[in-house]
Amino acid sequence: MTTATWLDLPEDSLFGLANLPYGVFSRPGSADDRRRLGVRIGDQVLDLGAAARAAGAPSELLDAPSLLDSPSLNALLAAGRPAWTALRGTVTGWLTDPAHRAAVEPQLHPLTEVRLHLPFEPADYVDFYASEHHASNLGALFRPGTEPLTPNWKHLPIGYHGRAGSLVVSGTPVVRPSGQRKAPADPAPTFGPSLRLDIEAEVGFLVGAPSPLGEPVALGDFPEHVFGVCLVNDWSARDLQAWEYVPLGPFLGKSFATSVSPWIVPLDALREARTAPPARDVPLLPYLDDTGADAEPWGLDLTMEVSLNGHVLSRPPAGSLYWTGAQQLAHMTVNGAPLRTGDFFASGTVSGPEPDTRGSLIELAWNGEQPVKLPDGSTRSFLQDGDEVTITATAPAGDGGRIGFGEVTGRILPAVG
Ligand code: CA
User: Fold this and answer.
1) Is the pLDDT of residue 58 over 80?
2) pLDDT number for residue 64
3) Among the options 100, 133, 134, 225, which is catalytic?
4) Does CATH number 2.30.30.230 belong to domain 22-116?
5) Spacing, Cα 344 to ligand 1 middle (Å)
6) Residue 62's pLDDT band (cuts 50, 70, 90)
């Protein structure tokens, strides 16, 4: 790949040619304020449809202009891996070949002048529980006196179906949910705003190419179906969750909002970020077994950063996840469940082994026993109204460079009523 762009970019830009993430933007106040597809380069966004018209695109893309002139990524997602690879090559050519500069440069807009939207129309949403450290910590907190990991945990990636309709783009305010809460000592449940509102820092995977009903997706087919990766904050009302989750799992304590970062980093940008997952303690059934000599490691070496009101709380390492994205996808479809374009699945909270690498407040403050101290002198066990949480991440990109993920941020608004 050509390594030089005609743009004036710092050498260490997290959004250089090695990245080129996809999003959906509009230009509020302009004559044409449609939502359209963009690629981020530096602190600008390239209008893909406009660039294709101005500079020319490969014929297979020009023959299907709806791919690029669309208000969401879904048409491009459905086009599959060959189209994704071709488009990335084309965009790279636009941004490196000086012959394209005159046509392409006017299609760049400063990020400060655009509004970013949820980049895809969600189909189904699944959330996993893939971090051994997180699952162990939650087990110790929720089920004291028992084994922290349930007997199934190291045999399959545990997950549940979430609510696709409440996926929201970064920056969307999060209204504190109300619901039934009942502490163990309470004689009966009460109704009211959640008193234990929390975050979960996760990695999200966006599915592009569908799969037919009845046909499991093998581990090795992960890159044929998954378009790219983003960051997720799975807001969680711990008091609602604790009362409702037995025996069918998370429900209203999770489904009020799930925030995603606006930029989808393509798998092609993450080749250098791939890393072997932790050693597995128990043998895996064949459809999940990625320990063979010819198996490809699909752990991702993302270093995440979680901030509360601008203060860094933790740096969760996604490379520590026990279950990889490929295993999550294989498990999600092993019963023949089909994939649809726009399906989205998340890893579950990323927590590393050290206390300052935990990805949720309930772990960081150890269920309120060790409240987190903030620079303004206040403390937190859970979120207060007005709090703003931001999650970012970087990943290795080769030659010592790194690529960045767009931040996922959200501010808590008071409960309604
Ligand atoms: Ca979660």
Assistant:
1) no
2) 66
3) 134
4) yes
5) 13
6) low
